């Protein structure tokens, strides 16, 4: 049985946040090219040494940030591996280039470390779409349910949960809970929840929120592209709408999609996720493979996200330097919430170890 909890579907929160971001004074752009980028990276490398710091970069961030992480012994990864790597590493300072929940996860798992982000406003529509008070009340209404939340949530929402999962491990964890006949509250991504419910047959009550990047992908656009490239494999992140997931050859987390591009023989890949992934995917697949963006709802000025997360785009080389030089962008999680949130996060890490 699947039910959709539809009390909260407040796109207004997301729109307001993005409108406020657009009005902020422009920060110094870190997406510099050529010499200035080389200088910025050299400065960042020096600061990493001085501060005994390590960089965790998500696959959706700019190529220069992914390069910097690779060159300085950090990691470029999906959200599950970022959590694992940050917890294991013995650096004093962890710089997280990604979105807020990734920085909070690093802090929850490593309270003794200083965790910095280039821009603390880098959030996620799923996190915004699941305010803790409403979510907590929803859970209180269903006390017989196991509460499973996606990693893309605030520390406070995680603290209210029994399990945290990422797209890289959600299926196996829900399969296990379904085998134990547990009834599940799932939040916040309804598309990922719906995909998992169909795969596992679990009894799930779904929160109604979505990723503003992935919900834009269109099944008809992929079908049209397949007519031009009939041999292409379709790689889909499960935050995408059901009709898009149904067309997929591979459904998976960002790292699972990159692995698939390396192992499949298709000459082209149609990719339904943030286009930041193309940097690592092209390296994994080989230069001879053609990577195609899955079509979204619009183009240019008419496109709301155009396969590009507006919050991931707030990360920059200059932001990394500012954080390390000035100690700006410190991620804090209140201790009582941190202790509670660490339990379901650690449960996920132990389950997937
Ligand atoms: P991954 O866990 O696959 O890295 O996804 C995180 C995310 O925010 C996808 O939009
Ligand atoms: Fe959140 Fe979507 Fe951005 Fe991922 S791509 S961080 S789910 S808004």
TrEMBL record:
Cofactor(s) needed: [4Fe-4S] cluster
GO MF annotation list: transferase activity
SUPFAM superfamilies (alphabetical): NadA-like
One family name in Pfam for this protein: NadA
Biochemical pathway: Cofactor biosynthesis; NAD(+) biosynthesis; quinolinate from iminoaspartate: step 1/1
Root EC class: transferase
EC number: 2.5.1.72
Keywords, alphabetical: 4Fe-4S, Iron, Iron-sulfur, Metal-binding, Pyridine nucleotide biosynthesis, Transferase
Stored PANTHER family: QUINOLINATE SYNTHASE, CHLOROPLASTIC, QUINOLINATE SYNTHETASE A
Protein name: Quinolinate synthase
Source organism (scientific name): Parendozoicomonas callyspongiae
């Amino acid at each position: 049985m699947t039910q959709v909890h539809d009390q909260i579907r407040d796109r207004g929160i997301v729109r307001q946040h993005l409108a406020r971001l657009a009005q902020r004074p422009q920060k110094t752009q870190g997406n510099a090219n050529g010499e200035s980028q080389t200088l910025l990276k050299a400065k960042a490398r020096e600061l990493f040494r001085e501060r005994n710091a390590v960089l965790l970069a998500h696959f959706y961030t700019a190529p220069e940030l992914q390069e910097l992480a690779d060159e300085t012994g950090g990691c470029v990864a999906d959200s599950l591996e970022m959590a694992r790597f940050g917890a294991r590493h013995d650096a004093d300072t962890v710089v997280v280039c990604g979105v807020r929940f990734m920085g909070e996860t690093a802090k929850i798992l490593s309270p003794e470390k200083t965790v910095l982000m280039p821009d603390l406003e880098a959030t996620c529509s799923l996190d915004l779409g699941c305010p803790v008070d409403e979510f907590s009340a929803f859970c209180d209404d269903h006390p017989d349910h196991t509460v499973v939340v996606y990693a893309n949530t605030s520390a406070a929402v995680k603290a209210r949960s029994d399990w945290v999962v990422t797209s890289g491990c959600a299926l196996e964890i829900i399969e296990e809970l379904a085998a134990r006949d547990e009834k599940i509250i799932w939040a916040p991504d309804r598309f990922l929840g719906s995909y998992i419910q169909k795969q596992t047959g679990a009894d799930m009550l779904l929160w109604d929120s979505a990723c503003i990047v992935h919900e834009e992908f269109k099944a008809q656009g992929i079908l049209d592209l397949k007519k031009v490239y009939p041999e292409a494999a379709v790689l889909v992140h499960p935050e995408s709408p059901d009709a898009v997931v149904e067309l997929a050859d591979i459904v998976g987390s960002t790292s699972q999609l990159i692995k698939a591009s390396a192992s499949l023989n298709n000459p082209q890949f149609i990719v339904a996720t943030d286009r930041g992934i193309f940097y690592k995917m092209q390296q994994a697949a080989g230069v001879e493979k053609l990577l195609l963006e899955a079509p979204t709802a619009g183009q240019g000025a008419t496109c709301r996200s155009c396969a590009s997360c507006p919050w991931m785009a707030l990360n920059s080389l200059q932001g990394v330097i500012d954080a390390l030089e000035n100690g700006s962008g410190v991620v804090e999680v209140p201790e009582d919430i941190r202790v509670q949130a660490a339990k379901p996060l650690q449960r996920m890490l132990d389950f997937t170890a």
